[in-house]
């Protein structure tokens, strides 16, 4: 049969030859292929996305679609042009459009955002970390699309499983005295460096603690309101609760002593500063986008009270599109009338790591960190490190977590400006995650 076709082509000339080879997709060539390597990975690991079998210089769009545990759709896309061999490789080839441009091997993950049919500004974060991964369905489409139009025909498909626990990591739900939360233990006998993980949101968030355990830390995801029988709203804080958690973790047989660390974001960050200042069990604290003052509600410990610095809601501005800007509600440290809410971090014997995004528009975390460094220096202290990232916004999460310029605030229930620039924020998360682990390992060895 092939000989017959070849003979006819000699008779009919180049016209038939052109018709037979106009599309490799419809000829004897291998069909386009899309591959993710490895197909299963931890959520903080890089994967390689590569397509082959395309026409030379063919224009295509790679699209990612992910459904979270609540059934909400998140999507992203990027436009690429194949090389002369019909190959695209996200590790070396630049995106020419879509939700990001340039060479961004993991851009499809950090640019994920609520799909058009979803409520905007929702944050993609894993709730149940042990049972199932996030699954990103990747599709390769002919031609360019920007996400607002129907994509071209599907040329190939692939999937990426993004896990939040490594094999062998154990989760133990805690109801230990007053302490609630989840303890994640790495595989093996240990002992492991111990870390308490705090956020500023209500409820129990486990995704960072589970990844820390996957990297060799015994990590306790510690809620302090909005979970089980804990206070449902953010009321006065009693440091004894956090002390009880610190003592539990310090004395766990799988935890390396003598001290433990604490990692906090936003409100969780100023709680971390208070813990390393007042609790002898805590010897290292990481403050991500935090404040040097005790914020929101009073903090009590034994016979001491640090008044909570309240947000001045009269300073909130609302854009024409209904986005709230709360960045001025705490003001600048240089303008504070009193120091009564400032945490006396100069009294701490432990070590600090301050991590901030210079584009943070939730509050002035860079100025707060600079004030903390200035205060420590004033008292002759050098027990701190300071990471400041140009272009990064408020929520500096583990690598490849989706960037949110605006996010629905759990407490206020409205879209709040968080700031930052997507690419710079994504790169800062990679750098910060590695340096946070290095800091904790060094001071908890």
Q: In short, what is this structure?
A:
With 445 residues, this protein is of the alpha/beta class. The chain is built from eight helices and 25 strands.
Description:
This protein is an alpha/beta fold and 445 residues long. It is built from 8 helices and 25 strands. The chain has an 8-stranded mixed sheet with strand order 11-12-14-13-16-17-22-23, sandwiched between helices. It starts with a helix and ends with a helix. 45% of the residues are buried. The N terminus is likely disordered.
Shape: globular
What's the rounded overall pLDDT mean?
92
- The total strand number stands at 25
Sketch the major β-sheet. 8 strands, mixed
Number of helices: 8
Q: Which residues sit in consecutive blocks of at least 5 with pLDDT less than 50?
A: 1-22
Label the structural class. alpha/beta
Strand ordering within the main sheet: 11-12-14-13-16-17-22-23
What proportion strand?
25-35%
Q: Rounded to an integer, what's the Rg over CA atoms?
A: 26 Å
CA distance, first residue to last residue: 72 Å
What is the multimeric organization of the chains shown?
single chain
Helix content: 10-25%
Descriptive terms for the model:
445 residues; alpha/beta; eight-stranded mixed sheet; 8 helices; disordered N terminus
Write the layout of secondary structure elements.
Blueprint: H1 2-12, H2 14-21, E1 33-37, E2 40-42, E3 48-52, E4 59-67, E5 73-81, E6 88-89, E7 97-98, H3 107-110, E8 113-114, E9 134-142, E10 154-163, E11 170-176, E12 179-185, E13 192-198, H4 207-214, E14 218-221, E15 237-238, H5 239-251, E16 255-265, H6 267-278, E17 282-288, E18 299-301, E19 304-306, E20 317-318, E21 324-325, E22 351-357, H7 365-378, E23 384-389, E24 406-408, E25 415-417, H8 422-443
Parallel strand pairs: 2-10, 13-14, 13-16, 15-18, 16-17, 17-22, 22-23
Antiparallel strand pairs: 1-3, 3-6, 4-5, 4-9, 5-7, 5-8, 9-10, 11-12, 12-14, 18-19, 20-21, 24-25
Helix pairs in contact: 1-2
